[in-house]
Every structure is written in C-alpha cells, then in structure tokens.
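Notebook, student rotation project (T.W.).
Task set for the rotation: take a protein with a known small-molecule partner, predict the structure of the complex, and write up what can be learned from the model alone. Partner molecule chosen: magnesium ion. Sequence and SMILES entered below by T.W., checked by me.
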Amino acid sequence: MIAWQTSATHTYTQKHNSFPVSFAMEKSSFSNMKLLMTECVSCVCVLGEYHPPPSPPTPGKEEGVPARRGSDGKLRGRKRVSDPAPPLDSDIERVFIWDLDETIIIFHSLLTGTFSSRFGKDSSKAVSLGLWMEEMIFNLADSRLFFNDLEECDQVHIDDVASDDNGQDLSTYNFGSDGFQSPAGAGSLCLGSGVHGGVDWMRKLAFRYRRVKEIYNTYKNNVGGLLGSPKREEWLQLRREMEVLTDLWLTQALKALALINSRPNCVNVLVTTTQLIPALSKVLLYGLGSAFPIENIYSATKTGKESCFERVSQRFGRRAVYVVIGDGAEEESVAKKKNMPFWRVSCRADLEALSHALELDYL
Ligand SMILES: [Mg+2]
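Predicted structure of the complex:
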C-alpha cells in the first residue's frame, strides 16, 4: 500500500493543517474519478428552525412512484423523464461507509459525559438532552417500528426476512392480534442465530419488517408527520438544543452526506452497532432519512462490522472504491484490514474537513 500523497494533498494539508485520517491508498484508485458535484450544498441550521440540507433523489425517494406495467404484464421499472432512475449498485464508483454514533450523531457521549468533558460543555445539560433523545428513540421504536416485537429478532438488513413474506395486502392487517407474541415466547425462537419459528411465524416477522420499511419510506422526509403533535414540537426543540450544544455537529455531517448524495455514482451506506430498529429510529429522529435509503442501512449488532463491510463490498462490487468514515476502533481496524481508506471523526472540525475534501474532489 502506498501512502496517498499528491500535490493536491500537500496543498490541502498546508491549508488545513492536517487530514484527520490515517489515509492511505493507491493514488491510481482515485485517478479516474471525476468531480461531478454541484455547487457547495448550503446547509443551513440557524439556531431556530431546523433545515436539513437538500439532497438529490435517492433510490428510496423513488418509493411511491408506480412501476409501469407493459402489455405483457412485466414491470418496466420506475424511470421517469424528470427523475432518472438511480444507478445500479454495479454502476456505483465510490461507496462511503459511515458509522453512526459519535460520527454523524452525538448521542451516547452525551449520556456518558464524554462529550461535555471533552468539549467543555454543560454536563447536566448534555445528560438531559441525551436522556430526552433516548426516550424519543425508544418511544418511536416501540410505538411505530415494532421494537417490542422485534428486539429479540434483530436483523442486519431490512430485507433479510423478505423471502418469508407472501406479499399479502397489509392495509387492514391487525398486528396487535396476529399472535406473533405467542405464550411460547417469540423471543426464544429468535435468540439463536439460524433458529427460526414456523413458516407462519416467520411470515408475521416479515410483515413487520415490511411495514417498518413502508413507514421509513413514507416518513423519512416528514418525521414531524410521523410523530404528530405535540411530539413533533418537542422533537424540534430537542433537535435545536442538541445542535446548539454540539456546535452544529449534525449539520456538518449532513453537509458531507449531501455532497456525497449529489454525486451520481457515489453512495452513502450506514453500518452501525445499534440494533436495526433503534438505528432506524435514530436515523429518522436525527433527520438522516434523506441521506440513507433504508436499503443502505446495516446493523452490525449480530455479526460485527467486518461481516457488514464484506456484505457491502459484495453488493457494490470490486470496481467500487470504499471509504470508511468513523470514530471507533472497530471500523478503523476493519477498514485497514480491507485496505479501505479511513476518515477518522474525532471532533466537528473533522467533518468540516471532510466536506472540504469532498468539495475539492480529494475523495
Ligand atoms: Mg461510533
């Protein structure tokens, strides 16, 4: 492996002191990548109303566009003149694999006091915001995303049990009385990996994941609508206070995510150690739904990050370049092992530098 040093890097390093990364890869990997960016995406978060940055269409945003059916009855895809279909996974040139906690969002370190002590913030305020967000995450997960049912039946990916779904209409389906949580204890059926319940039970499990996917796709750009009043107002206030306390950490992350999404052949993928359902709840509540199509979210709780990275690289293929962005030792070591460049996020400035590097087409 050759340290990635170019004249451009040198200039950048002089200007910004240093890359916050153990960034090493063959220069040739980047040589054929073209800068296909729009102007710097303006990411506005005035200390008041929250305005997530704009982002281009993602595969998930195509949900709801009816598939066309030809005279032979075959699906014709979802292409529209004004809204071109997203690139196939095999056409993706660069994949940015993000960690979630303490990389994109600040959550756990609020509760532990790490964030306040590290950045000189009011520790009691930090803890109270962390507890407030924790309550919202689990409330949403339990009330709308079936976390009570699915906690012991965690999956790596939203589609992992889709093959057990018979596709029946769920519009009048009663999830509360379908016997999923039988006295036998559904959890015991799921606890061991590979241990499955019967066909009926697996289908009910698949129905829940299908509904979660529908909810995510329906509300990913309208979380307030999902929460309803007065939770919506509470959530907006929490988001504002969180951004003030963290010096717009999330805003910076959203800027980098939007820059990546603005490129036609680049994609954001999330690999988190949080269980899938609470992870989806976090993604929605922190306003990341437009940055990550649900198909690009992986939970490493069951299998670890290395296995998820492997899965991601099988999905997008060998031709793609993979860049890992995170704060943790696990993603860093897996990135190193897989020869993927790693961008370490230790403070908000690391996210700013990431956006600069993206704007300048250094990665
Ligand atoms: Mg982390």
